[in-house]
Amino acid sequence: MSFFHSVKLVVVDSVASVFHPVLGGKQMDSLALLEQLGLQLKQLAVDFCLAVLVSNNMTSGFEGKKQPSLGRLWSHVPHTRIILERETNSLTKTSHRKAVLVKSMRQVGTS
């Protein structure tokens, strides 16, 4: 039990890449499983007083607009959402990374 008391962060990398092949497009099953996963990760965080970081891939949606691959349901699961981007300047061939806070329970006006 001492191992769990020393853990402060759990990382689930690319959760969408695990869900999509297993479910094979069964939308109702995937929605239920995603919701259950979110609830269990939140409970894990509360029970063991730790942070949970889940990464999600971005996909090209309608008209090439980028969107999270886990869809709208997952956007309501985390308390904080951050989009990480890399912007490249084609003239100077340089790039920089940008982090955008999309959702936070600490933002004014959120519930």
From TrEMBL:
Alphabetical list of SUPFAM superfamilies matching this protein: P-loop containing nucleoside triphosphate hydrolases
Entry's Gene Ontology BP terms: DNA strand invasion; double-strand break repair via homologous recombination; reciprocal meiotic recombination; telomere maintenance
Major subcellular site: nucleus
Organism of derivation: Pomacea canaliculata
Protein name: Uncharacterized protein
GO molecular function, one term: single-stranded DNA binding
Keywords associated with the record: Nucleus
GO CC annotation terms, alphabetical: microtubule organizing center; Rad51B-Rad51C-Rad51D-XRCC2 complex; replication fork
Signal peptide: none
Compartment(s) of residence: Nucleus
